C-alpha cells in the first residue's frame, strides 16, 4: 500500500491527484503545517520535515514532481506517462522539472515574505519581485496551451499535474487574476477533472478524520 504524507493543499497535492487519476489504493496521512513545528516525530520519517513524503515498499521519495513521474512510470500502465522513445519525452521531462524549480519556487518566497515570516521580517519588495518573476515564467505555459489542451504529447500527462500545482498555489496567493487567458482556461479545465475534485475531497475528509485543521496550508497565517 502506498503511503502519502501530506499537508492540505501543499505540494503533496501533486502525488495525491496522481493517485486519484490512476485509481491506485493508498493511505493518506495528513500532517499539520508545517510538520517540523507541529508534528516533530515526522522528522524521523523525513529529516527535511517537508511534505510530500511518499512510501512505496522500500521506495521513499521527497520530491513531488519526481513522484508524479514515478507513479506514472511505475504504476500508470502508460496512462499519464510519456515513454523515452516518444518524441514528446524531452518536453515532458522539461515540464516536470520546470513545475517546481521554475514555477513553484518563486511563489514560496512570496508566501514566506508576505505571510509566514513574523511582521518585522516581512519583505514586501522580495514578495513583489518574485510574484512578477513567477508571472513572467508563466509565459512558457501560456505559449504551450494557446493551441493545445494540455502541455505536451497531445494528451493529459503527469506533467499537467505537476504544473497545475503551481497554478493552484498562485490561486491561494491571489495571483490567478493575472493569469493570461489561455492559462486561466487551462487551469479551469484541470480543476474540472473528476480526479482533481476527488483529491480535494480526500484531503478534506482525511484531515477531519485525523484531527488536522483542513485549511489549505498556503492560507494558514502563523499567530
Ligand atoms: N521540492 C520539494 C519541496 C517540498 C516542500 O518544501 N514542501 C513544503 C510544503 S509545499 C513544506 O513541507 N514546507 C514545510 C517546511 O519547509 O518546513 C517538492 O516539490 O516536493
UniProtKB/TrEMBL annotation:
Question: Recorded GO terms, molecular function?
Answer: transferase activity
Q: Which organism is it from?
A: Pulveribacter suum
The residues that cross the membrane are none
Q: Which residues are in the GST N-terminal domain?
A: 1-79
- Pfam families per the record? GST_N_2
**InterPro entries, per the entry:** Glutathione-S-Trfase_C_sf, Glutathione_S-Trfase, Glutathione_S-Trfase_N, Thioredoxin-like_sf
The protein's UniProt keywords, in alphabetical order, are:
Transferase
UniProt keyword GTP-binding present: no
Name it: Glutathione S-transferase
- Give a yes or no for keyword Lyase in this entry: no
Q: Which lineage ranks, top first, belong to the organism behind this chain? A: Bacteria, Pseudomonadati, Pseudomonadota, Betaproteobacteria, Burkholderiales
Would you say which domain of life the source belongs to?
A: Bacteria
Entry-linked Gene3D superfamilies: 1.20.1050.10, Glutaredoxin
